[in-house]
Each structure stands twice: as structure tokens, then as C-alpha cells.
Amino acid sequence: MEKNNALQEGLHRGLEERHIQLIALGGAIGVGLFLGAGAAIKAAGPSLILVYFLAGIIMFYIMRALGEVTVAYPVSGTFSAHSNIFLGPLTGYITGWTYWFMWVVTCMAEITAVGVYFSFWVPEVPQWIPALCALVLMASVNLVSVRAFGEFEFWFALIKVVTILAMIVAGSAMIVFGVANHGVAIGISNLWSNGGFFPHGIEGMIMASTMVMFSYLGIELIGVTAGEAKNPEKSLPAAIDKVFWRILIFYVGSLTIIMSLYPWNQIGTMGSPFVLTFNKLGVRAAAGIINFVVLTAALSSCNSGLFSTGRMLYNLSLQGKAPTMFSKLNDRHVPVKGILVSSGFLLIGVVLNYLVPAQVFVYVTSVATFGALWIWGIILLIQLKYRESLSPEQIAQIKYPMPFSPISNWVSLAFLAFVAIAMFFNPDTRVALYIAPIWFGLIAASYYAAGMHKGDGEKKSLQQ
């Protein structure tokens, strides 16, 4: 198969396996877990643990689909570049710009949150000042080199991982040995003694499924690192396999501990479960510690967002689907203009977040929410088309094959469709189903308005 410009990148391969693993962990373990996951717990009760496990299996198949194609075509544009080849130029265009927009909007919210978390210590400082400082810091890190980004993200993610592990170990000691409970083991009876393990039945699990799936948002960042990974054939499969199990342990493990220690129907009214757990151990600075962790989590998300948006604009430019200025690299092989433009949009977002009504911002972020389902669905379809392009002999030689394909693809796609339908029954996510078609319509219209379809048609006729 002929390789196009989207696969001919000049980025520096400076990310090691430890960077990639922690980047994926940091992307998928968000602020919501530390601040309580209260809405999801309220919706499903202890059965939320099962929802996370089932959703985790689906995410595993999505990541393996991503891994199979990315090992064969290791570029930073990943799903955009791959869909450009296997699903057509229009799909590649929509996918690339949707992913860019998804991260820009996510980072707008995260950068604003930095100001809120900072005010915990210094309430007299206007929130926009720490938000602006955080944006300048993260943009500077991304502009230095890909290794600088990788190191910052490694340590940011490590803070979250250590905090979760500390909570799991401390909580387990309370449950099994009665630590901080006068030696009386707390046990796990809270998992079924307050209305049962399924207090709201299957309906509760369905309502929680949308929140659970979006808590995994960011795990696909592994694919965006592909163009700058050292030895991608080795580091990407290792990162995907290890990260999946670790994330599953962190989510399922921490939620099991939390709902064992406290009745699930009281958690949302008592504040952060992490703060409660550390307070129970006698850690007086628990609130300050968790605030520091969520602050670094927000910075981590912004850091990853600037990285991924810069690389997506770079690859879209190589495809001819974004201005050519984004395809220029500096002497450190960094797509500077893509990072700067994305930073500019984040700056606008911080200002807008204070000027426009909160509901407007909710509408915009809802598009990003639906964008996650689009990206994951596209990843599964790309892998199906990739397999179709291979002979039986080539399929047998795939270096990192997706398990049980194509059955696992269709099961995963059906699950994503199920989540999209469930979004309609949740007032907080229903708006995404109304706005998403408008977004996709506008982005598709811009493709034709810019005449890109003509250029793509000419390229196709030349290749035939």
C-alpha cells in the first residue's frame, strides 16, 4: 500500500516506554475520581464496580485495535492519519478536527479548574491569574522538546498513581485489620447492606455507563505518542497491555475500597472519599494533599491536551487538511505553531468561561463528550478495514493482533452505540446528541467548502 504524506513525519522519537505508560495512565485517571465520582456512585451504587470492569474490557479491545494498526503505521496523527487511508479523506478530516476540538474544550475546563484549586490556598488571588500561569507553563514545556513533555507528564501522572495506591493500601488495612478503627475490621458488608449490590437495578448501571466510559477518556493518547515513541513496535504493545490492567485495578480497586469503607448512599454528601479515608488515618492535611493532587491532575490534562492538539494539527497539515504552517517543525522537531495556536484557543476559552453563561460552556463541552465515542468507534472501524486490506498470509504475520477480531470489534461498537443511546436518558448528556450532528455537519461542510474533496479525488485518480 502506498504511503501518503500523513505517514511521512519528521518528529523526534524521544518518548521512552515509561513515558508512554504514564502518559496513558495520566490521561485516563482524571480529577473526577479524586473528587468523589459521586454522580456515578449515586446512579449505580456498588454495581458501579461491575460497570467499570465491563467498560474496561471494551476499552481493552479498543486499545488493542489501536495498537494493531499503530504498530504497523506509528505516526502521531494515528486515528486521523489511519482513517484517511482506510476510511477515506473526509473521515480522516472529521476525525482529526474532532479530536483537536475535543482536547481544546477539555483543556479549557481543566485550565479554569486550576484557578479554582489554587484558590483553596490563596483565595484572594483572582482565579484567572493561576489559570494563565498554568497555561504559559504547560505551553512552555511542550515547546521545549517532546522529552520535556514526557518527563513532566511522567511525574504528574506518578503523583496520581501514588495517591491512589496509598488510598488502596490504607483502605485495605482498615477493611482487613481494623487500622484507625480500634482494631475492628470494617469488612466489605457495605457493598450489599444498603439496598443490595444493585440498589437501582440494571437501570442504574445503564445511567452510570456514560459517566464510566468518559472517565476512560485520554487512554487513547498512547496512539498520539506513536510518532515520537522510541522503538514503537516494542514500547506501544507493552504500554497498552500494562496500562489497561493498571487502570482497571486503580478504578475498580479504589471504588471497591471507597464503597466498603462508607455506605454508598452517603458518599456524595460527605465530600471526597480520598479526603475522608486519609482523615480517618489521622492525616490532618488530607484536604490540602488531595487538592494538590487534583491541581496536578488538571495540569497533566492540559499538558497532554497541548501535546495531542499540536500533533493532530501537524498531521492534518501533512494530509493537506490544515494550513501548511502547522507542518513546520523547529530545530528540536516540535510542531511549534500547532501548539501556539492551540494555546491561543485555550486562552480564549479561559476568558469565555468567565464572560458567557455556564450553560453555554456545558453545550460546547458536550460535543467533546460525544467526540470520544466517535474516536473510539473510528479506531475499531479502522482496524476492520486494515484487516480487509491484508492477505491471509499477512494477517498471520501481524505483530500485535487484536484478540477475537472481528467479533470483538462488533461487540465493542455495539457497546458504544448502547452508551450513545443511554446518553439520551441522562439530562446532563442528552444535549450532546443534539449538538454533535451540528458539529459534524459544520466540519463536513467546511471540507467541501474548502474544495478538499476535489484534491482528494485527483489524488485517488492518480493512484489508480
From TrEMBL:
Record has Transmembrane helix as a keyword: yes
An annotated GO cellular component: plasma membrane
Superkingdom of this protein's organism: Bacteria
Topology in membrane: Multi-pass membrane protein
UniProt key word Membrane: yes
Alphabetized Pfam families for the sequence: AA_permease
Record's keyword terms, sorted: Amino-acid transport, Cell membrane, Membrane, Transmembrane, Transmembrane helix, Transport
Compartments in which it is found: Cell membrane
InterPro entries (UniProt xref): AA-permease/SLC12A_dom (IPR004841), Amino_acid_permease_CS (IPR004840)
Domain Amino acid permease/ SLC12A, first and last residues per copy: 19-448
Gene Ontology biological process: amino acid transport; transmembrane transport
Signal peptide: none
Transmembrane segments: 20-41, 48-66, 72-93, 100-122, 128-149, 161-184, 204-222, 243-265, 285-314, 334-355, 361-386, 407-425, 431-450
PANTHER family: GABA PERMEASE, THREONINE_SERINE TRANSPORTER YBXG-RELATED
Name recorded for this polypeptide: Amino acid permease-associated region
